[in-house]
């Protein structure tokens, strides 16, 4: 991830410090960071170098330093990452510190006067911050209210990414020194080193759905995300979507070369539309015919997901938390996670790309909610859930699936994700044979990601992961309403939601579902249709189509639906939640 730092650039970066318009945080803000650093120090004890050397004799104090001092401090960027690039004195947390910059970290040690007995002071404590955790360096100035430029130089501020569990947040370290020369040298070196992180995006295409959930996406972006992107010097090109399909249309046409990533601010429906757009665009650019059984090519750009919807299953699954600042920090730091993606096709035509789908109870509930769009979001979801439970009835269908044969340590072993990435889809499919089951099902779920959400913190499909090249097929057979409710309730507690005789789970690479009822899904909703016609909302279904819930969006399918998993087809900005050692989300049921 880290490339060797470039040669020092011109003074322009320093003059760029004028872009820092605000008074920096008080020094106390660095205290939390100190704790974080202490924690990190323990983790990196073995690799840490000792920099408790005496301070340089020729300056670096908080008094203005001369050109002589600057020459002494300036050194060529070292080939050895542990070699000192620059060294000087800054005040950190009101203490004069001997500060050393190497290619990987900034280390500081408080300067204590020698004891009269000449004994070494055991309280001298070295602290450090890894540059991989720093995302910006800014010049810190004191400005009076309303003053836009100039101001008294106070030093430099490092902006770091701190993690607590799954949550990421911004933290600052203030390096105070009133010398312009001294600060300039440090600023240039730090800028150069930070620009060496090639995975961090510098230019992003951003889509904001202003209609998501309670219409908060725009405010979330403007107030919580855009200021962080600005701090990290990331250029953005923002499109506020005006209608369904707007992001897809833009992605089909726009020049993607100028961006390092795409960002979607909204709910799962918006994210799925952008994922579909990115992948469709990749197929178009590669000349693939998406309407045949095909092996799709990967999306050209990684996608960042800023949660601003109602469920935010995709953001939750890839960040372990629904938190816009965490999502923004993953983008800024360039954290990447390859994610399995599904294609949904019917009658030989690709309908869309996505991550998860539900048929039966899940599809009907969403269809009902869509018919009552005039209700506030949470109310219509609750209404639809109760209504669908009241009218609970099984679907008669035939489900065929291609199991994923997982040999321990074999190519499809989820632990060998690099192998999954390199495995041709045809290779895996050739090893399996289709299995078919038919009958009455209350719900069928097919999920390529764990689908974490507040109602199911372990995930709707805890037995799959983001990048293991498989999907979870969860088939809920016919059962009484009370048994079905018991099964649903278990998603929110620690009991195994699958330990019912009517629930079967499979690890699969493809699913084909063929409904066997003739009349489509309008048969039991005559009362709703009357109500809906009186509301004059557009009819969302027609005779002979079947309602699927695909990533929270209603997909009307004219008969059979084929779902195939494509291992690690898209890259999202984020991490594999299962690999976070202190992540609260743990699966204990399978
Ligand atoms: N300006 C707009 N007005 C109406 N719909 C829009 C607009 N822009 C985008 N859309 C569409 O709105 C749909 C739903 O958006 P989204 O998923 O972000 O919100 P949500 O449904 O409230 O959230 P969730 O899916 O998490 O429940 C998407 O299909 C998207 O294409």
From TrEMBL:
Source organism superkingdom: Eukaryota
Compositionally biased tracts (Basic residues): 32-41
UniProt feature, compositional bias: Low complexity: 58-68
Single annotated GO MF: lipid kinase activity
Region feature Disordered, mapped onto this chain: 1-79, 406-432
Species of the source: Scleropages formosus
GO cellular component, one term: membrane
Coiled-coil intervals: none
GO biological process, one term: regulation of apoptotic cell clearance
Protein name: Ceramide kinase-like
